[in-house]
Amino acid sequence: MSKTLIKNIGRIQTPIGSYSHKGKEQGDNIKIDNTWLLIEDDIISAIGKDNMIPSDLGEIDKEIDALGSLVTPGLVDGHTHLIFSGFRQNEIGLKLKGASYLEILRAGGGILDTVRNTRKASFDDLYKQADEAVSEILFSGVTTMEAKSGYGLDFDSEIKMLEVINALNETTDMTLVSTFMGAHAIPPEYEGRADAFIEMLCEDLMPYIKERDLAKYCDIFCEDSVFNAEQSRKYLEKARELGFGLRIHADEIEAIGGSKLAGEMKTSSAEHLISINEEGLESLAKGGTTAMCLPGTSFYLGAKYAPVREMIKRGIPVAIATDYNPGSCPSFNLQFIMTLGYLKYRMTPEEILTAVTINPACALGLGEEIGTIEVGKKADLVIWDAKDVEMLCYRFGTDLAMNVIKGGKEIE
Prior knowledge:
By secondary structure, the chain is α/β, with parallel strands linked by helices.
């Protein structure tokens, strides 16, 4: 058994428990000052109450000096489109002329432009780009991340993307949670035949993916000009029947019933929610669905921001994530997203820490293992070049992660 001691910790700050935090509890963190922490193999085995380290800890294999800094749980990015080929910087001119996200999509650009590039890309090309991104993301303090398919939109390309995610899970230190999002857009070959496309995804791709354990969740883009609520229900019902967890892109641009459906089906999360209405808010609260809010997308698109304060008031668990993708948020900087949570959602630093640790962990089915600093949980930790979480929300544009520990292993 390997033992690692983290000493001279200025402050441990963490939510507590293995469940989604909502309402007032969204902002409940514990703070332990001037302390130490012991890791045995990949598990947290002891947390000290002061810097007086006991003499009976046994032989210590490695010591890490936190230099009086802040330690939090490893960050969890609960929504990314990690696997793709083709950034879309060419859309800058269109956007400067006022073209909207849906206008670019209707003209054959947007998601469909990335689809064309992703279909042409080899497994190795996709793996290399994603591997480089994962390495940078891990060093920034994110130790667990959701990764979606959805830029293939045909059988072979979607499988290729999911196989890349699974290969990365085997070869990198990051924990990746795989989501099948074949219903991300209507591909050109199914133009005008969205129902037939949904049928193909449900009857051909989903069973194949489940049989080979290539994804844990299924997701669909319920939006104007994409998939309506009825099509989304059919897709998610089939996913549930096959044993997948459920996620849904809902109310990003228009409220067409996605958030209402999310609550009714008790999906693990509903994503975006920029345009959520009263009916959607009531449904999410009743269904216990996590609101996976994506302020980086609002920032990049110049759109309004999801009503997070109202969500917290109504007892909806809130998580915030990057939405890393080539079109509406070409950034995987979760630290910047935390700053947007403070500036645009008006969340407290404590609420934000919950929103990037235990709440997304629970939305990914990992709340029993990660998301808090507690004895018995996995040792996914970040030592920050900061004294408090307030500094993490305040210093945007600067990477403050000093040491990252993943599963008890210091990332070097």
